[in-house]
């Protein structure tokens, strides 16, 4: 077997121990009350899957559109979704 240099061993070690991106569970709900029961201590938000943004209650796009669901705000953040600025984007 051929001898590997220190750089090659370091690369192999990094590849073997690299952390993989893991998608966190996101529980979407059709109705706001269902989401609130799922996360009683958290804020329910409207998640727009197409835009990759979530909206708080009272914002213009809250509960609008066909490509979204109600979710817990902590789950939305942990899954990589971002809050829309002023509910307009």
Protein structure class: alpha+beta
Give me the side-by-side strand order of the main sheet: 3-1-2-4
**Poorly predicted residue ranges:** none
- The gross shape turns out to be globular
Mean pLDDT: 80
Report the helical percentage: 25-40%
Protein topology:
Blueprint: H1 6-17, H2 32-38, E1 44-48, E2 53-55, E3 68-72, H3 73-78, E4 82-83
Parallel strand pairs: 2-4
Antiparallel strand pairs: 1-2, 1-3
How would you describe this structure to a colleague?
- The protein is α+β, with helices and mostly antiparallel strands.
- The chain has one domain.
- The chain contains three helices and four strands; from the N terminus they run ααβββαβ.
- It has a four-stranded mixed sheet.
- The longest helix is centred in the N-terminal third of the chain and has 12 residues.
- The radius of gyration is 20 Å and the shape is globular.
Summary of the model, kept short:
The chain has 89 residues and is of the alpha+beta class.
From the structure above, extract its key features:
single chain, 89 residues, alpha+beta, four-stranded mixed beta sheet, 28% helix, 17% strand
